Amino acid sequence: AAGSTARILTYANCADKIAGVTDMDKSNDVNMPYSVVNAELFANLPSIGSGGSKDIPYEEELIVLSPDVIVSNRDIADINELQEKTGIPVIGLAYDGIFDVSVYNALILIGDIMGTKEHCIKLIEQMKAWEEDLNNRTKDIPDANKATVYTGGVSYKGPHGFEGTYGGYPPFAAINAKNVVDETGKTGAMLIDLEKVTVWDPDIIFLNPTNMDLINEDYKKNKSFYDGLTAIKEGRVYSQISYNYNSTNIELAIANAYYAGKIIFPEQFKDVDPKAKADEIFMAMLGQAYYDRLVEAGIGFGPLTIGK
Fold this sequence. Notes:
By secondary structure, the chain is of the alpha/beta class. The chain is built from 15 helices and ten strands. The protein has a four-stranded parallel sheet with strand order 7-5-9-10. Strand 3, helix 5 and strand 4 form a beta-alpha-beta unit.
Protein backbone atom coordinates (compact mmCIF):
# COMPACT_ATOMS: atom_id res chain seq x y z
CA ALA A 1 0.00 0.00 0.00
CA ALA A 2 1.95 3.00 -1.31
CA GLY A 3 1.22 6.65 -0.50
CA SER A 4 -1.81 6.85 1.79
CA THR A 5 -3.74 3.95 0.23
CA ALA A 6 -3.62 1.80 3.39
CA ARG A 7 -6.51 3.98 4.60
CA ILE A 8 -8.92 3.13 1.80
CA LEU A 9 -7.84 -0.51 1.95
CA THR A 10 -8.93 -0.37 5.60
CA TYR A 11 -12.29 1.13 4.60
CA ALA A 12 -12.61 -1.67 2.04
CA ASN A 13 -12.05 -4.29 4.77
CA CYS A 14 -8.93 -5.79 3.23
CA ALA A 15 -6.12 -4.43 5.42
CA ASP A 16 -5.27 -8.05 6.24
CA LYS A 17 -4.11 -8.49 2.63
CA ILE A 18 -1.56 -5.66 2.82
CA ALA A 19 1.99 -7.00 2.49
CA GLY A 20 3.89 -3.72 2.99
CA VAL A 21 3.13 -0.21 4.22
CA THR A 22 4.84 3.19 4.42
CA ASP A 23 6.84 4.52 7.35
CA MET A 24 4.01 7.00 7.99
CA ASP A 25 1.44 4.18 8.14
CA LYS A 26 3.51 2.68 10.96
CA SER A 27 3.34 5.88 13.05
CA ASN A 28 0.28 4.73 15.04
CA ASP A 29 -0.90 8.36 15.15
CA VAL A 30 -4.31 9.15 16.66
CA ASN A 31 -4.89 11.72 13.87
CA MET A 32 -4.78 8.85 11.37
CA PRO A 33 -7.28 6.35 12.80
CA TYR A 34 -6.50 3.68 10.20
CA SER A 35 -2.88 3.62 11.45
CA VAL A 36 -4.07 3.05 15.03
CA VAL A 37 -6.65 0.32 14.39
CA ASN A 38 -4.04 -1.51 12.29
CA ALA A 39 -1.05 -0.69 14.51
CA GLU A 40 -0.20 -4.28 15.43
CA LEU A 41 -0.56 -5.50 11.85
CA PHE A 42 1.43 -2.63 10.31
CA ALA A 43 4.24 -2.89 12.89
CA ASN A 44 5.07 -6.34 11.57
CA LEU A 45 5.04 -5.42 7.87
CA PRO A 46 8.05 -4.23 5.84
CA SER A 47 8.32 -0.57 4.88
CA ILE A 48 7.85 0.02 1.15
CA GLY A 49 7.92 3.84 1.12
CA SER A 50 8.25 6.95 3.22
CA GLY A 51 4.59 7.99 3.02
CA GLY A 52 3.35 11.54 3.39
CA SER A 53 2.77 14.20 0.75
CA LYS A 54 6.19 13.56 -0.82
CA ASP A 55 6.04 9.79 -0.59
CA ILE A 56 9.22 8.11 -1.82
CA PRO A 57 8.65 4.46 -2.78
CA TYR A 58 11.37 2.03 -1.72
CA GLU A 59 11.65 0.26 -5.06
CA GLU A 60 14.20 -2.36 -4.02
CA GLU A 61 12.10 -3.40 -1.02
CA LEU A 62 9.04 -3.69 -3.29
CA ILE A 63 10.93 -5.89 -5.74
CA VAL A 64 12.14 -8.16 -2.92
CA LEU A 65 8.66 -8.28 -1.36
CA SER A 66 7.12 -9.07 -4.77
CA PRO A 67 3.45 -8.40 -3.95
CA ASP A 68 0.76 -9.32 -6.50
CA VAL A 69 -0.08 -5.63 -6.96
CA ILE A 70 0.94 -2.21 -5.65
CA VAL A 71 -1.78 0.34 -4.86
CA SER A 72 -0.80 4.00 -5.19
CA ASN A 73 -2.51 7.40 -5.09
CA ARG A 74 0.34 9.26 -6.80
CA ASP A 75 -0.13 10.87 -10.21
CA ILE A 76 -0.13 8.76 -13.35
CA ALA A 77 3.48 9.55 -14.29
CA ASP A 78 4.72 8.31 -10.90
CA ILE A 79 2.50 5.23 -11.14
CA ASN A 80 3.85 4.34 -14.58
CA GLU A 81 7.43 4.87 -13.40
CA LEU A 82 6.92 2.67 -10.34
CA GLN A 83 5.41 -0.08 -12.47
CA GLU A 84 8.30 0.07 -14.95
CA LYS A 85 10.97 0.00 -12.24
CA THR A 86 9.47 -2.83 -10.20
CA GLY A 87 7.80 -4.91 -12.88
CA ILE A 88 4.78 -5.16 -10.55
CA PRO A 89 1.29 -4.03 -11.65
CA VAL A 90 0.37 -0.70 -9.98
CA ILE A 91 -3.26 0.24 -9.36
CA GLY A 92 -3.87 3.99 -9.35
CA LEU A 93 -6.46 5.46 -6.99
CA ALA A 94 -7.67 9.04 -7.25
CA TYR A 95 -10.44 10.34 -5.01
CA ASP A 96 -11.38 13.57 -3.31
CA GLY A 97 -13.86 14.91 -0.76
CA ILE A 98 -16.00 12.90 1.65
CA PHE A 99 -19.30 12.18 -0.11
CA ASP A 100 -17.99 12.08 -3.64
CA VAL A 101 -18.44 9.68 -6.52
CA SER A 102 -14.65 9.43 -6.77
CA VAL A 103 -14.55 7.95 -3.24
CA TYR A 104 -17.24 5.43 -4.12
CA ASN A 105 -15.52 4.49 -7.38
CA ALA A 106 -12.24 3.92 -5.54
CA LEU A 107 -13.99 1.64 -3.02
CA ILE A 108 -15.69 -0.37 -5.78
CA LEU A 109 -12.38 -0.75 -7.65
CA ILE A 110 -10.57 -1.99 -4.54
CA GLY A 111 -13.49 -4.24 -3.62
CA ASP A 112 -13.44 -5.81 -7.10
CA ILE A 113 -9.68 -6.44 -6.99
CA MET A 114 -9.41 -7.56 -3.37
CA GLY A 115 -12.58 -9.63 -3.12
CA THR A 116 -14.46 -7.39 -0.69
CA LYS A 117 -16.95 -5.84 -3.11
CA GLU A 118 -19.98 -6.77 -1.00
CA HIS A 119 -18.51 -4.95 2.02
CA CYS A 120 -17.68 -1.92 -0.14
CA ILE A 121 -21.19 -1.74 -1.58
CA LYS A 122 -22.66 -1.82 1.94
CA LEU A 123 -20.27 0.90 3.10
CA ILE A 124 -21.14 3.10 0.12
CA GLU A 125 -24.86 2.66 0.88
CA GLN A 126 -24.19 3.68 4.49
CA MET A 127 -22.14 6.72 3.45
CA LYS A 128 -24.91 7.84 1.08
CA ALA A 129 -27.42 7.41 3.92
CA TRP A 130 -25.33 9.66 6.20
CA GLU A 131 -25.04 12.23 3.42
CA GLU A 132 -28.81 12.21 2.84
CA ASP A 133 -29.55 12.38 6.56
CA LEU A 134 -27.24 15.36 7.11
CA ASN A 135 -28.66 17.22 4.13
CA ASN A 136 -32.32 16.49 4.87
CA ARG A 137 -32.10 17.87 8.40
CA THR A 138 -31.11 21.35 7.20
CA LYS A 139 -31.87 21.75 3.49
CA ASP A 140 -35.13 23.64 4.02
CA ILE A 141 -33.78 26.20 6.51
CA PRO A 142 -33.55 29.66 4.88
CA ASP A 143 -30.07 31.21 5.00
CA ALA A 144 -31.53 34.19 6.82
CA ASN A 145 -32.42 31.90 9.74
CA LYS A 146 -28.98 30.29 10.01
CA ALA A 147 -26.19 31.21 12.41
CA THR A 148 -22.95 32.22 10.69
CA VAL A 149 -19.95 29.97 11.36
CA TYR A 150 -16.16 29.98 10.97
CA THR A 151 -13.62 27.20 11.31
CA GLY A 152 -10.02 28.01 12.28
CA GLY A 153 -6.80 26.25 13.17
CA VAL A 154 -7.19 24.14 10.03
CA SER A 155 -4.05 22.16 9.24
CA TYR A 156 -2.81 21.90 5.67
CA LYS A 157 0.81 21.46 4.69
CA GLY A 158 1.48 21.76 8.41
CA PRO A 159 -0.27 23.31 11.43
CA HIS A 160 -1.87 26.77 11.36
CA GLY A 161 -3.42 29.09 13.92
CA PHE A 162 -6.76 30.89 13.93
CA GLU A 163 -6.16 32.22 10.40
CA GLY A 164 -6.00 28.70 8.92
CA THR A 165 -9.47 28.11 7.51
CA TYR A 166 -11.37 26.38 4.70
CA GLY A 167 -13.73 27.57 1.97
CA GLY A 168 -16.42 25.05 1.11
CA TYR A 169 -15.50 23.22 4.33
CA PRO A 170 -16.96 19.74 3.69
CA PRO A 171 -18.50 19.11 7.16
CA PHE A 172 -20.26 22.51 6.93
CA ALA A 173 -21.29 21.92 3.31
CA ALA A 174 -22.82 18.56 4.28
CA ILE A 175 -25.20 20.32 6.70
CA ASN A 176 -25.78 23.42 4.56
CA ALA A 177 -24.14 25.63 7.20
CA LYS A 178 -23.50 29.31 6.53
CA ASN A 179 -19.70 29.42 6.40
CA VAL A 180 -18.54 33.06 6.38
CA VAL A 181 -15.39 32.08 4.45
CA ASP A 182 -17.53 31.04 1.47
CA GLU A 183 -18.04 34.76 0.83
CA THR A 184 -14.49 34.82 -0.58
CA GLY A 185 -15.58 32.58 -3.45
CA LYS A 186 -12.59 30.34 -2.77
CA THR A 187 -12.63 26.66 -1.83
CA GLY A 188 -10.13 24.55 0.02
CA ALA A 189 -7.66 25.34 2.78
CA MET A 190 -6.38 28.91 2.99
CA LEU A 191 -5.04 31.61 5.28
CA ILE A 192 -7.46 34.46 5.97
CA ASP A 193 -6.78 38.04 7.05
CA LEU A 194 -7.94 38.34 10.65
CA GLU A 195 -9.52 41.70 9.85
CA LYS A 196 -11.98 39.84 7.62
CA VAL A 197 -13.01 37.68 10.58
CA THR A 198 -13.63 40.83 12.62
CA VAL A 199 -15.94 42.12 9.86
CA TRP A 200 -17.75 38.79 9.59
CA ASP A 201 -17.97 38.38 13.39
CA PRO A 202 -19.35 34.82 13.10
CA ASP A 203 -22.03 33.62 15.53
CA ILE A 204 -20.21 30.32 16.18
CA ILE A 205 -16.53 29.42 15.86
CA PHE A 206 -15.08 25.93 15.48
CA LEU A 207 -11.38 25.29 16.08
CA ASN A 208 -9.02 22.36 15.63
CA PRO A 209 -7.99 21.29 19.16
CA THR A 210 -4.67 19.98 17.83
CA ASN A 211 -3.59 23.55 17.03
CA MET A 212 -4.90 25.29 20.15
CA ASP A 213 -1.31 25.87 21.30
CA LEU A 214 -0.74 28.15 18.27
CA ILE A 215 -4.06 29.93 18.82
CA ASN A 216 -3.41 30.44 22.54
CA GLU A 217 0.07 31.77 21.82
CA ASP A 218 -1.37 34.28 19.36
CA TYR A 219 -4.06 35.24 21.88
CA LYS A 220 -1.35 36.56 24.21
CA LYS A 221 -0.17 38.94 21.48
CA ASN A 222 -3.55 39.85 19.99
CA LYS A 223 -6.11 39.79 22.81
CA SER A 224 -8.13 42.68 21.43
CA PHE A 225 -8.90 40.75 18.24
CA TYR A 226 -10.05 37.60 20.00
CA ASP A 227 -11.92 39.35 22.82
CA GLY A 228 -13.74 41.47 20.26
CA LEU A 229 -15.39 38.50 18.56
CA THR A 230 -18.95 37.84 19.69
CA ALA A 231 -18.64 34.05 19.58
CA ILE A 232 -15.64 34.17 21.93
CA LYS A 233 -17.23 36.73 24.29
CA GLU A 234 -20.38 34.64 24.53
CA GLY A 235 -18.68 31.24 24.77
CA ARG A 236 -19.70 29.76 21.43
CA VAL A 237 -16.38 28.14 20.47
CA TYR A 238 -16.30 24.40 19.77
CA SER A 239 -14.00 21.71 18.40
CA GLN A 240 -13.64 20.18 14.97
CA ILE A 241 -11.29 17.23 14.81
CA SER A 242 -8.52 17.72 12.27
CA TYR A 243 -9.16 15.20 9.49
CA ASN A 244 -6.69 16.11 6.73
CA TYR A 245 -3.60 14.22 7.82
CA ASN A 246 -1.78 12.10 5.26
CA SER A 247 -4.77 12.81 3.00
CA THR A 248 -8.43 12.79 4.09
CA ASN A 249 -9.60 10.72 7.05
CA ILE A 250 -13.17 10.55 5.77
CA GLU A 251 -14.62 9.01 8.94
CA LEU A 252 -13.44 11.96 11.03
CA ALA A 253 -14.90 14.45 8.54
CA ILE A 254 -18.34 12.80 8.65
CA ALA A 255 -18.28 12.69 12.46
CA ASN A 256 -17.37 16.40 12.44
CA ALA A 257 -20.43 17.15 10.29
CA TYR A 258 -22.77 15.55 12.84
CA TYR A 259 -21.16 17.40 15.75
CA ALA A 260 -21.26 20.73 13.89
CA GLY A 261 -24.91 20.07 13.08
CA LYS A 262 -25.68 19.45 16.75
CA ILE A 263 -24.14 22.82 17.67
CA ILE A 264 -25.39 24.97 14.78
CA PHE A 265 -28.85 23.40 14.39
CA PRO A 266 -29.72 21.98 17.84
CA GLU A 267 -33.42 21.51 17.02
CA GLN A 268 -32.76 19.62 13.78
CA PHE A 269 -30.13 17.39 15.45
CA LYS A 270 -31.82 16.98 18.85
CA ASP A 271 -32.03 13.18 18.43
CA VAL A 272 -28.29 12.87 17.63
CA ASP A 273 -25.66 11.96 20.21
CA PRO A 274 -22.47 13.06 18.37
CA LYS A 275 -20.26 10.64 20.32
CA ALA A 276 -22.48 7.62 19.62
CA LYS A 277 -22.85 8.69 15.99
CA ALA A 278 -19.07 9.04 15.68
CA ASP A 279 -18.58 5.46 16.87
CA GLU A 280 -21.29 4.26 14.47
CA ILE A 281 -19.28 5.86 11.67
CA PHE A 282 -15.98 4.47 12.98
CA MET A 283 -17.43 0.95 13.27
CA ALA A 284 -18.62 1.03 9.66
CA MET A 285 -15.42 2.49 8.21
CA LEU A 286 -12.66 1.27 10.53
CA GLY A 287 -14.20 -1.88 11.99
CA GLN A 288 -14.06 -0.67 15.59
CA ALA A 289 -15.13 2.14 17.92
CA TYR A 290 -12.59 4.96 18.13
CA TYR A 291 -14.12 7.98 19.85
CA ASP A 292 -12.61 7.21 23.29
CA ARG A 293 -9.13 7.30 21.75
CA LEU A 294 -9.79 10.86 20.53
CA VAL A 295 -10.93 11.87 24.02
CA GLU A 296 -7.80 10.33 25.56
CA ALA A 297 -5.70 12.41 23.14
CA GLY A 298 -7.60 15.58 24.11
CA ILE A 299 -9.12 16.09 20.66
CA GLY A 300 -12.72 14.99 21.15
CA PHE A 301 -15.88 17.05 20.71
CA GLY A 302 -16.78 19.83 23.12
CA PRO A 303 -16.49 23.54 23.90
CA LEU A 304 -13.07 25.23 23.74
CA THR A 305 -11.74 28.22 25.68
CA ILE A 306 -9.19 30.42 23.91
CA GLY A 307 -6.33 31.59 26.14
CA LYS A 308 -6.25 28.56 28.44
